[in-house]
Please model this.
Amino acid sequence: MGLFDFFRKNKHDELEDAGLDKGWDEPELIHEPEEEEPAYIPPQAPAWDEPVHKPEGWPVMEPICISERSMQFMQEHTHEEVERAAANAATEGMKAFQAQEFERARGFFQLGSELGNQKAQALLGSMYIQGYQVPRDLAVGRAWLRRAAEQGNQQAAEILAKYVGESEPVAEELYESARANLETDRRTGLYYLNRAADMGLSRAQYEYGMILIREDDEEAKGIEWVKRAAFGGYARAMTYLGNAYLKGDVVPQSTNIAVEWYEQAVKKDDPEAQLALGTLYAKGSAVPHDPDAALRLLTLAAGAGLSEAAELLQQLPASQPAGE
Model:
């Protein structure tokens, strides 16, 4: 299925000769003004650990960001100039896509998406949802489609509701097949697990990543899968990243990032994260010493059955029970 098949209203629709769906309004190509403007090369998609920015109001753990270059461009140009650049990027991306220059198309769609063009966001999200000429990533695809839908893009809303909803049950079935085969037929089990992970199932991404890290000596590849799971909201992956960043294991050491991942996992009631963050508060390492926060978190972890948390509670100075 081609990318623009997503934008057919029904099975009787046909693509125009230009390769676009009839229901898709191609942005008007805006000619450059006579005065010279700064050259702007479409950026590559930001790497997971590349410094990026979150615009105000964007969820902290959403798996999409704005590159340094796009952020600088938006700061140095007027709103109208940014809109023009974003529309041109979407147009150039569609031209490149029709010419089967897919990496160039993705670059333009990425640029247009970062600058806020809803059509570029819908197209980029569709590429990731379908895995069309890019690694398939439902989390990233969902996020860009959601951005487009929030701006009123109906096609993005329809894809978000239909395609993702149909994909998740398939991913669940693949995951169950993986679990059933891993012990008796590792090769088959890993195949199914990889397929489920590729379709965006967070716990499959986490488990596949951990196998690559611990068993197959492919740490760089494995940590990327774990990060995808964490950005998709999987608490165990968040806690693992907290531990990894705290120790500098597999990833560069960063106490601040470690604490951020612990906090996100605590919000999802993960006992291991409660233990880890509670321990930091109790010792005053990486975070300010906070006996009350330590007591609250360690009590929760102990209540979930973690004996280490219960032992640490016994070592805390006498204090009121959490919640009083």
Confidence is low (pLDDT under 50) at residues 1-52, 320-324. The first strand starts at residue 52 and ends at 53.
